[in-house]
């Protein structure tokens, strides 16, 4: 076995679940812009959210979109992930329940997409990779 092969064998892959967060400025039209992602990895005890708002893309769907309201909702998602006291009961729950709360379908301006799974050696880096691939 070569050194490269043994180094690859030493990497432990962890299962994760994730959702892409979608802004739907006019839910009746169904148009959406990806604005973030939430990733949960039980084995790593990791729950994280990353967000990115592109005002021009959002205004292309709705010139009157309330960016401050959307930004506040995204801040709330990050607060739940972090277990911040301002997140109330959702923020006080265990990580699995917090992810369940964040990934539950909604009919509001901010909606989670379907849950997807994957494998990673680094949940934080995977969240960044998902942001670059799906959001930015």
Give a brief rundown of this model:
The chain is α+β, with helices and mostly antiparallel strands and about 140 residues long.
The biggest beta sheet is recorded as: 5 strands, antiparallel
Low-confidence region ranges: none
Instruction: Give the % helix.
Output: 40-55%
Question: Whole-number radius of gyration?
Answer: 17 Å
Span from first to last CA?
A: 40 Å
Indicate the overall shape. globular
Please trace the helix and strand order, writing H or E for each element. HEEEHHHHEEH
**What's the number of domains?**
1
The strand count comes to: 5
| Number of H/I helices | 6
Strand-pairing-aware structural class? alpha+beta
Strand content: 15-25%
């Amino acid at each position: 076995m070569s050194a490269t092969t043994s180094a690859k064998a030493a990497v432990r892959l962890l299962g994760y679940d994730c959702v892409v967060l979608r802004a739907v400025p006019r839910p009746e039209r169904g148009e959406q812009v990806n604005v973030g992602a939430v990733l949960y990895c039980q084995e790593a005890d990791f729950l994280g959210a990353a967000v990115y708002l592109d005002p021009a893309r959002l205004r292309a769907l709705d010139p009157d979109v309330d960016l401050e309201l959307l930004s506040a909702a995204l801040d709330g998602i990050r607060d739940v992930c972090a277990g911040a006291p301002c997140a109330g009961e959702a923020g006080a729950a265990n990580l699995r329940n917090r992810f369940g709360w964040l990934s539950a379908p909604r009919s509001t301006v901010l909606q989670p997409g379907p849950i997807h799974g994957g494998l990673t050696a680094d949940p934080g880096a995977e969240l960044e990779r998902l942001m670059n691939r799906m959001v930015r």
